[in-house]
Amino acid sequence: MWLFCKSGFFSAVQDRDDPGRVLVRSRFQGDIERMFPSANVIHTPEADYPYRAFVPRMDWAAAVLSQAEGIDYENFKDAVHDGTRRDAAYMSVWGALRRAQDGGTL
User: Fold this and answer.
1) Are 74 and 51 a contacting pair, CB within 8 Å?
2) Residue boundaries of the structural domains of the chain
3) Is the Cβ–Cβ distance between 66 and 60 less than 8 Å?
4) Which residues make beta-bridge pairs with 15?
5) Bridge-partner residues for 11, per DSSP?
């Protein structure tokens, strides 16, 4: 699952060793800590996602619910637009999905 939100960008997958946990991954330093302040974040610069943490599945579900309940904007792009690398990355994803929707090339 990919989650794009004001708190950050996350990729969550099932922990292959413990189905009660998910491996939450991020490309940006600090994202996981914002979502899970007590998480033990592992820095893996050689991996696809350089930041990772194992969290209980129910904690992930609660965090996603909290993000959904906390929506306080009428336009997500405007809510995250701040001129940073994250802003550019989010807009690139938005653009690629828009082109795919319209049948164009990515």
Assistant:
1) no
2) 2-72, 73-106
3) no
4) 18
5) 2, 25
The pLDDT tens digits for 38-58 are 999 999 999 999 999 999 999
Q: What is the per-residue pLDDT across 63-80, written as a single tens digit (0 to 9) for each?
A: 999 999 999 999 998 998
Q: How far from chain centre, in Å, is Cα 53?
A: 12
- HSE-up of 37 (CA within 13 Å, CB side)? 0
Q: How many CB atoms lie within 10 A of CB 14?
A: 13
- As given in the structure block, the two tokens for residue 55 are 């969290």
Q: Are 22 and 15 in contact (CB under 8 A)?
A: yes
- Dmax over CA atoms of the chain, in Å, equals 43
Rounded to an integer, what distance in angstroms lies between the CA atom of residue 2 and that of residue 13?
9
Closest to 29 (Cα-Cα) out of 17, 41, 39: 41
Q: What residues contact residue 105 under an 8 Å CB cut-off, 6+ apart?
A: 99
Tokens for 37? 């302040």
In 10 A of CB 8, how many CB atoms? Answer: 22
